[in-house]
Write a structure and sequence with these properties.
- With 248 residues, this protein is mainly alpha-helical.
- It folds into 2 domains: 2-146, no CATH class; 161-241, Beta-Lactamase.
- Helix content is 61%, strand content 8%.
- The chain has helices spanning 2-10, 19-35, 44-47, 51-55, 61-100, 105-159, 179-184, 202-216, and strands at residues 165-167, 173-176, 225-230, 236-241.
- Strands 1-2 form a two-stranded antiparallel sheet. The protein has a two-stranded antiparallel ribbon with strand order 3-4.
- β1 and β2 form a beta hairpin.
- α1 runs antiparallel to α5 (61-100).
- Residues 1-14 have low confidence and may be disordered.
């Protein structure tokens, strides 16, 4: 599970090819041998592996500090599950020495518990940081997709062969596409701000009001309906319209 988490967020190969896993295993084994060097004194080679002896100190506090660093390293590279496994393994090693070997039981226990608490908090912070990072990346992707969708919609709207315009409840035109220019005779730049009443005769205005009343009642216009439009030059254009109601 720890390796799967690492692969998900770091894109590395799982299993035995994970270099971080092997580094953590080697370091953990080395620290554990040093931490229990008294129990391994009968084995010549292993009895020489002792950080306190090399550094000429009498206590094993430094090893507890390195256990903490190893927990942090595992939490960052292997994820929260890998960090938790190393945390539990380190807890077993440190607490066993505190109870079975350490001559200063109280100090050793306090140091061990403090290191484990700090390690647990650090892993939680790492997990929170990565979760926030994933959410930010997801948000950025969503915004990017929305921008792309809007761009595609605007291109489709602008270049559609059918004339499309948008107007508010009062009939004021707010948005048009290029095809409206050929249909109405007005340049695209002049149409926004005009009212649809300017393009309708009394007869066609009655039809438009009927359509509006149906839409306000929640009914849908499932089929196109015929309508006539007054063009800029005063001529009439016969249309088949399809109207939809948008709530923004």
């Amino acid at each position: 599970m720890g390796i799967s988490y690492f692969r998900k967020y770091r894109g590395q190969a799982p299993g035995l090819r994970n270099s971080h896993l092997w580094i953590i295993i080697v370091l953990f084994v080395f620290l554990s041998i040093s931490h229990f060097t008294q129990l391994l004194s009968q084995i010549p080679f292993l009895s020489e592996i002792s950080l306190p002896t090399v550094l000429e100190i009498s206590r094993h506090s430094l090893e507890r500090f390195f256990y903490l660093l190893l927990i942090l390293y595992a939490g960052w590279t292997l994820g929260i599950v890998g960090g938790a496994v190393v945390l539990l393994s380190s807890a077993v090693a440190m607490l066993l020495r505190s109870f079975l070997i350490s001559p200063n039981f109280r100090d050793a226990l306090l140091e061990s518990i403090s290191g484990l608490v700090i390690g647990a908090l650090a892993i939680t912070l790492i997990a929170t940081y990565r979760q926030n990072k994933r959410q930010r990346e997801k948000l950025r992707k969503t915004v990017k997709d929305m921008k792309l969708a809007r761009q595609n919609y605007e291109e489709l709207f602008t270049n559609a062969s059918d004339a499309i315009w948008v107007h508010d409840l009062e009939g004021n035109i707010t948005l048009v596409n290029k095809a409206c220019e050929k249909l109405s005779g007005y340049p695209v730049s002049e149409l926004p701000g005009k009212n649809v009443l300017e393009f309708l005769t009394p007869e066609t205005l009655s039809i438009a009001r009927q359509v509006k009343d149906k839409l306000l009642r929640g009914e849908t216009m499932e089929q196109r309906y015929e309508q006539r439009l007054i063009k800029k030059d005063g001529s009439m254009a016969n249309l088949k319209l399809f109207t939809i109601w948008l709530v923004i």
